[in-house]
């Protein structure tokens, strides 16, 4: 048992705060936790403030001044490297979104320029992504057929991009970027793996040279669609695809083994496109079942601002598509920006990044681009190629512009099957089963979230997977609050430390006293549970004591150290508990309520009703006080001391 | 500063548990927190087990054995008292639900009988309630007009009752009763006040003798409807209503002042009905603008099981109505049962009560009753009249049956305006502005929830109020997890205790060390926030130190005592934080991770990467270790000690 504590300390109530001040503090904490205007606020001169503000909004002003030739060299090299990846990938993903292939090139021209001005990541390479492309195709395609009504479909894609950008900008401006955090890491792993599986399956269309295909994305529909037309399979196309896939995967493997050879896998798609095109050109393979891209229009992005569709019934479809694809794109882009910033030790303000992404998509939607973000693969290549600043994005944009102006005819003979191989190779990297295993080992619930996202995407639709994983993640948060852990504490021998007896089996409990620790806030959602659970602990303890014929239970010490907050239902519960215990001739003792809890407990009559002497600063002091009462004057009923419980008799 | 701690203690990892065992424990904790089968489980003999099981399901078996004449006397008195309240209230509420008045009597016959067998509360009096009645009228009335299509409307009301009962039974059987807790106390106060306001406004129709009235329930529509037909107002009706209202409120006031005279207010509605009927009968007031009930059918409940509507399009309407009214009814009934059980010191199992409510409504829907629960007013009268067991419900049911068989003709001349007065008098008690003021004083957020429920109901619809208040309550839970408090800890002088320096302003901080306490779990929803916020604390501390030219910051002590759980995103955040701090030449020290957190931290590589020596059991020990390092060998970089951080350099 612990030794007597000589000095008792008082639990204090923090000084009261005026309502509006505390409201302001709370809102500040919710929206400006990272204190983004810290530097600006500290500056006293107005002109300096404006300058810092401009630099805050346009990071280019920050880094452009220190820019030098050394940087330029690095940026040009990495810019060209990512352009060589961006061109074939762009065409492939546009194909995946059922959009004209040229849109993939357009989307690698305007958005990177905007990002270079407004973005704060130095390593992010802007471009379209497979998952958002597929999602666009699946969502818009459900209501408008891309083949029968290509113009409307195209315009809806622009409109969805516009809405996505608008939403991203708004989230950033309102500093609501934390809403994107609702997509947990586990959910993203499952979701990405599912989406990659679905995207790969979709590519079987290109690989097998099929021309009709289902619009559904789930495994069952896709497999049924493939096997129902097995007589239409083109072996030439399949063989060619497998060869390129093998080539791409080999280069990936090499680059993974030797990170210095990253450029091998970065160049592989372009090499595949060139070889594929040459192959078709010389062997006239287009007449033997190999589908080709065909003609691409020359010239840079035509304006599309007049094509945006704001009339019902399509505007809601575009809005919905925009919001969902926009969130997915944000989640990927922000995560990519953050992780590279971590490596290079600089800061990324998520909300500011959202504004940059948003502006880039709004501008994109005005100039024939569809949804772009910062894809992981392209940014990794950028990073490995040694980029220094966002200038690499500008270089890529220029390279793409040159392609658009002069080189598009070269893609005439590019076989679609090569594009499919490029997509499959990129997607296989997204199935991160090791991460899933890691989740299983560390946290079963996270694995469950991941699995449900995966299964939802694979067997349902991409949206179902998304909703499932978000729903289950949120359920977990609610469950944490709804069912907080309560554990019994024991004394670690020869100390005044009290800890969970399950975690520290050597900790000893005291007869006559039970110490319960509540591990979470006391809210309406858990107050009934806590009351029941505490009752059960007491019942069990009394049973045990009755069997061993020890001292009967007299004191219930409730350690509130970990109770971050309490609401009025929680206070009622404590009052109720105090009365219940009083009637069972048990004395409730409270330990270490935090600032919030203490404020509310003293405003209510609770402190008076249990007696000010029965609120202690540490468990050791509370135990010592109980111990003292137990051994000196054995009280016939603890109410006599508190003066609080008999109140109830008057009710 | 605190004195040197001589002995260091180890943080322990609890022994691993097999997956299925821990899953079972978790589910047990979620669903069987109150351990309802404790007694049954402890019994070894099978026959005894069955007996206990039966008694568990049918509490009547429990108390019937000890029943005696003394009890019967009390129960008969209270039963007759509540019957005298139930009859006029029943008719009034049926009127409110746009149902034939006789249904109010039917509903006070069968359901109380069922409850007497299955319910575990001794004080609850079963009957219909105003809010659920109005909700039924509003929801079904939106699609089916009660005047034009009374038969379908009636059948839908039965079906909704059936679905409500089914849902209640299922919730109870699946032990999901905690879902009802989503309606917080604050939400219920606001919701009830709003509903009472709306119900009172609806009564203006009866009071002013109007025959046409809006179907909307919001203040604006109702007032517009009333004032647009001011030429139709009947002053006779209004005057009579005001007189009765005055009488009822006076008796209420008397009973409130002198609780012993509770029977005055309990009898007042019946007295009003009698006097009102006599008044009409003798003065022939029905020809002077006073509307009367008219003929009521003699005889007890006809069966209605064949009237249930399970065909579309109406089945979804009935289902929706049933679920919403069922939840509202449950929330009231369970709260009433619980609070009286508290007074009399016996236990109520919420889930068991739900089954009882559910069965009573299912049976009710088969026998021409609509939704019943345990209304507060009637139960309070029952309690005050000295009821001992659920037999008082049986007595009430018998009294109602007698009325149904023989006395219905007496209600022919009962004026509707009296019913309106009865409803208004009952409703005014529900506007608990004192409770709302109490919320404002204790917890602003709860007040906000209450207010939004009130405004939602009054200016929108009852459903909007419900959804608003639940939504905001849930948002609060999410916000708690999403934005946990972090505070700086200081040492309370001459002790080894560390506490929040805002709560204990006398606590002293140490130069070179910052101690941060995280007050909540570390989950995906807050890990970015925590990382940013910790960064901000460190920035601020470094600024402060720079100004005062004290020791530079070297150690960040993170107190995880209140971190109830951590998920994989949280672990990644800690790993990231450790790397970030390492690069800033700061050493991360962890204090007292709980069982769950410790389990996951040791499974991940985190413990290794910060070094096992840098995880301490108490803040005092951590501080002492840092202090020792600071004063003996001033380390040029703390990495040397930990051996953890340099790993990053190889990445």
From TrEMBL, chains A, B:
GO terms for cellular component: membrane. Its main location: membrane. InterPro entries: SLC26A/SulP_dom (IPR011547), SLC26A/SulP_fam (IPR001902), STAS_dom (IPR002645), STAS_dom_sf (IPR036513). It is found in: Membrane. The chain crosses the membrane at residues 123-140, 152-174, 186-204, 232-249, 261-283, 323-343, 355-377, 389-407, 412-431, 451-479. The keyword NAD does not apply. It is a multi-pass membrane protein. Gene3D superfamilies: STAS domain (3.30.750.24). CDD domains: STAS_SulP_like_sulfate_transporter. PANTHER family: SULFATE TRANSPORTER. It comes from Eruca vesicaria subsp. sativa (Garden rocket). It holds the Pfam family Sulfate_transp. This is STAS domain-containing protein. One of its GO terms (molecular function) is symporter activity. Residues 503-626 form the STAS domain.
């Amino acid at each position: 048992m612990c030794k007597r504590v000589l000095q008792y300390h008082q639990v204090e109530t923090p000084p009261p705060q005026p309502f509006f001040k505390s409201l302001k503090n709370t809102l500040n904490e919710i929206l400006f936790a990272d204190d983004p205007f810290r530097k600006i606020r500290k500056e006293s001169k107005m002109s300096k403030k404006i300058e810092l503000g401009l630099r805050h909004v346009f990071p280019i002003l920050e880094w452009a001044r220190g820019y030098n030739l050394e940087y330029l060299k690095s940026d040009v090299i990495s810019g060209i490297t990512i352009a060589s990846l961006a061109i074939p990938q762009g065409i492939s993903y546009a194909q995946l979104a059922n959009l004209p292939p040229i849109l993939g090139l357009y989307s690698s021209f305007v958005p990177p320029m905007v990002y270079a001005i407004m973005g704060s990541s130095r390593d992010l390479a802007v471009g379209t992504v497979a998952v958002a492309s597929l999602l666009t195709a699946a969502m818009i395609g459900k209501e408008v057929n891309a083949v029968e009504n290509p113009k409307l479909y195209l315009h809806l894609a622009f409109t969805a991009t516009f809405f996505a950008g608008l939403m991203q900008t708004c989230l950033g401006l309102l500093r609501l970027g934390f809403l994107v955090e609702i997509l947990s890491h586990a959910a993203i792993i499952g979701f990405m793996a599912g989406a990659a599986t679905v995207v790969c399956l979709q590519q079987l269309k290109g690989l097998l040279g099929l021309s009709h295909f289902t619009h559904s994305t789930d495994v069952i529909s896709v497999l049924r669609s493939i096997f129902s037309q097995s007589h239409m399979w083109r072996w030439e196309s399949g063989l060619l695809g497998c060869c390129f896939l093998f080539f791409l995967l080999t280069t990936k493997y090499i680059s993974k083994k030797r990170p210095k050879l990253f450029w091998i896998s970065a160049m592989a798609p372009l090499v595949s496109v060139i070889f594929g095109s040459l192959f078709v050109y010389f062997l006239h393979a287009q007449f033997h079942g190999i589908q080709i891209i065909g003609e691409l229009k020359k010239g840079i992005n035509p304006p599309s601002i007049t094509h945006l569709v704001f009339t019902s019934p399509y505007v809601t479809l575009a809005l919905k598509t925009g919001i969902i694809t926009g969130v997915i794109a944000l989640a990927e882009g922000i995560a990519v920006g953050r992780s590279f910033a971590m490596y290079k030790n600089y800061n990324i303000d998520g909300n500011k990044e959202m504004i940059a992404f948003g502006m880039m998509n709004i501008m994109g939607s005005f100039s024939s681009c569809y949804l772009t973000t910062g894809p992981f693969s392209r940014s990794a290549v950028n990073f490995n190629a040694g980029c220094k600043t966002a200038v690499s994005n500008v270089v890529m944009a220029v390279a793409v512009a040159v392609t658009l102006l002069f080189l598009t005819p070269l893609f005439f003979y590019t076989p679609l099957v090569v594009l499919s191989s490029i997509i499959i190779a990129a997607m296989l990297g997204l199935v991160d089963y090791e991460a899933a295993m890691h989740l299983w080992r560390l946290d079963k619930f996270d694995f469950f979230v991941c699995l449900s996202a995966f299964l939802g995407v694979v067997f349902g639709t991409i949206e179902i997977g998304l909703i499932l994983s978000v729903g289950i993640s949120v359920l977990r948060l609610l469950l944490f609050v709804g069912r907080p852990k309560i554990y019994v504490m024991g004394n670690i021998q020869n100390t005044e430390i009290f800890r969970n007896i399950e975690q520290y089996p050597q900790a000893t409990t005291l007869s006559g006293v039970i110490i319960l620790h509540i591990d979470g806030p006391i809210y309406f959602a858990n107050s009934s549970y806590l009351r029941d659970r505490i009752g059960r602990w007491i019942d069990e303890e009394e049973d045990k004591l009755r069997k061993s014929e020890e001292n009967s239970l007299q004191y219930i010490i409730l350690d509130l150290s970990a109770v971050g907050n309490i609401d009025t239902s929680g206070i009622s519960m404590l009052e109720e508990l105090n009365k219940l215990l009083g009637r069972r001739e048990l004395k409730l003792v409270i330990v270490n309520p935090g600032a919030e809890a203490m404020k509310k407990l003293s405003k209510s009559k609770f402190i008076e009703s249990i007696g000010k002497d029965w609120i202690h600063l540490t468990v050791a002091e509370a135990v010592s006080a109980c111990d003292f009462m137990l051994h000196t004057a054995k009280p016939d009923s603890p109410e006599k001391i508190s003066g609080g419980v008999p109140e109830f008799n008057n009710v």
